[in-house]
Records
---
Amino acid sequence: MTTGQHQLIEKLVPDSIKKLIPYQSARRIARGMKNTENHVWLNANELEVCCQYGDEKEGGNSHYNRYPDYLPTDLAFAYWDYCKQAQPVMADSAEIMAVRGADEAIDLLVRTFCKPGNDQILVCPPTYGMYEFCADSMGVKTAVVPLTAEFQLNLIDIKKQLAETSIVFLCSPNNPTGNVLAQQDLVDLLECTKDEALVVVDEAYIEFAPQSTVLHLMSQYPHLVVIRTLSKAFGLAAIRIGFLIGDQSVMSYVSRLVAPYPIADPSAEIALKALSPTGRQQMAQQTSELIEIRDWFMGEVSQLPMVEKVFPSSTNFVLIRFKGSENFYQYLLNHGVVARSPAQEATVKGCVRISIGSAESMTKTLDVLKQY
Ligand SMILES: Cc1ncc(COP(=O)(O)O)c(C=O)c1O
C-alpha cells in the first residue's frame, strides 16, 4: 500500500469503524486453525444431527446444518480466475469478496467509508438509484453532477465537489442509459481523486462490453473499487451473488462490516458451477445470443414512427425516447409489457427502458408498439 493510499483510507474511515472488532462468527474463528479434522464443533449452536426435510429423492439437506464460511474463499478464487481470464493484469494487492448481490456491495461501501450526518457521496445521474438510496438511508449526503447530454462525465463540475466527497459512484456500462463511460475520463478522475475520495465503478453489465472494464487500472489507482454481479449476464439474479474488488487497504475495513455469513451454501454451489469453465462458456454463448436479439430489436424499434431515438446499448437493455406526450411506459403496461420508466432527469424525459428478453418476448413487445 502506498503512503498516499494509506492516508486516504485513514482519512475516510470513520473512527467508529476503526474501533470496530469484527463479530467472531462460527467459521471466522476456524480461519488459520490447523489439524482440525478430528475436532468436535460445538461453538455455534448448530444442529449436528439433522433430519432430511422433504423427499429424500429430491436431494435432502443434511449438509446445510452448518453455518457457511464467513467469506467463501473458493468463490472468491473462482471469481478471481474468471477476472484474470478476461483481464490478465490484476493488481497484486487486489482482493475479492463475495457479497449478496451488487446492492450489498454498495451498501457496505457507504457504511464503511461515510460518516452519517457528515460525509457525502457523489453520483452522476441518470444512473442506478441505489447509490443515492443507500446514502439517504444512512443520513449521508449525495452530491449530484448529472452526466452530459452525451451521457458522459462532467469532469469540471465533479472536480468542484471532490474536497467534500468520500465516494464517487459511477456505473459503466451505465443503467439506464446503456452506454460505457469514456476510459480517459475515468483515468482523469482517478488522477484527481487520489488524495480525496474512493472511486467506485459498478460493472454490473460488464459482460456485454468486456473491453471497457477498469480492473487493470487498480494497480495504478488503489483507491479504485469495482463492483460486479452474477445477476445480469450470468442470469443468476435469484441467488444474490455479487463481488467487491478492491485494494487490500479498502477490503480490510469492508470485511469488518460484512454480515457474519453473507453467502448461503446453495447460492455458493450454483455460483461455482456458473464460474466453472463450462459455466463461463455457457454464459458467453447466451450473452452473444442476447446481443443478437438486442441488435435486431433496436433496429426494428428505431423504424417505428413514434420513436425519436434508440440509444446505443452496451447492456442487456435498451433506452428508447418516444416522440410527443404519450406515456409509452403506461401504454406498454396496459398491453401486458412491463418495462421501466427511468427517473425523470431532463436527459431521459420521455424515455422507456426495456430489458432484452427472449426473441418471443421482444417480438410481442414490438407487435404491441406497432399496434399503437
Ligand atoms: C448498475 C447496477 N448495479 C447493481 C445492480 C444490482 O445488482 P444485484 O442483483 O447484484 O444486487 C443493478 C440491478 O439492476 C444495476 O443495474
---
Amino acid sequence: MHTPPETIVSADTPRGEIALRERPDPDGTGVVHELVVAGVFAMDSLDTTTETALALESLARTTSPERVLVGGLGLGFTTWQVLKDKRVRHVDVVEIEADLVQWGRLALAPTLGLVSRHPRVSVHAGDVGPVLRGEASPTGPWDLVLLDVDNGPSFLVHERNERIYRTDALRAALDRVNPGGILAVWAAQREPALLTALEGLAPTEEILLDVEREGRRLTYALYLTRA
Ligand SMILES: C[S@@+](CC[C@H](N)C(=O)[O-])C[C@H]1O[C@@H](n2cnc3c(N)ncnc32)[C@H](O)[C@@H]1O
C-alpha cells in the first residue's frame, strides 16, 4: 500500500494551488519530493531522467554553453545538471511561482535548495514568455535556452502557456540564442505540430525518451533547434 504524500508547504496563487510534498521512496531508504502546480501533480524526484536529458542533450550539442536560460525551476533537476558542466558560467532561471522561488531559497527540497542558492545561478520570479520575446529581464542572449514550463502545447497545465509555443514566440525565442546555440523544449508526449513549427524556423531534432511510471510506459519528447 502507498503511504500518502505529506505536504511540506503550500500556497494559493492566481493559477491555483502550488505545493511541495514528500513521501517515502519505494525502497524505504529516503524520501521522494513532489511538486504540485496549478493544483495538479507536476513532477517528483523519483525519476528525473528526462529533466536531466533536457540539459545533457543540449549541452552535448553546444561548443561553448557559457550562458544558459532555464524556463521553469520545478524541483531544480534541469538546472543542477546544467551546473555540473564547468563550461557554464551563469544560469538564469525564470520561474512563474514566486512562492517556489522562496521555497528554493529556504532549501525546502534538496536539489531545489542547491540550485537556488548556487553562486552561478540567478533565479527570477516571473513569466518566461515576455523574457523570450525580449520584453522583460533577464535579457540574454544565451547559448542555451531550455524550456520545461508545461507538458507541451497539446496538454497544457497553464492555458496561458499556449502563447509560448506559437511560431512567432518560438522565432522570438530563437533570436535570443547565440549562433550555434540551442533552443530546447521538453514535452510529456510527442508534439508533431511543434516539431513542424520549429523545423520551419531552423534545423530541429526530435528525441524520444521512454520512461516507466507506476507500471506504465510513457514516451516523453525533447525538441532541439539550432540557432
Ligand atoms: C515540470 S516543472 C519544471 C521541472 C524542472 N525541469 C526540473 O528539473 O525540476 C515546470 C515549472 O515551470 C513553472 N512554470 C509554468 N509556467 C511558467 C511560465 N510561463 N514561466 C515560468 N515558469 C513557469 C512551474 O511553476 C514549474 O515550476
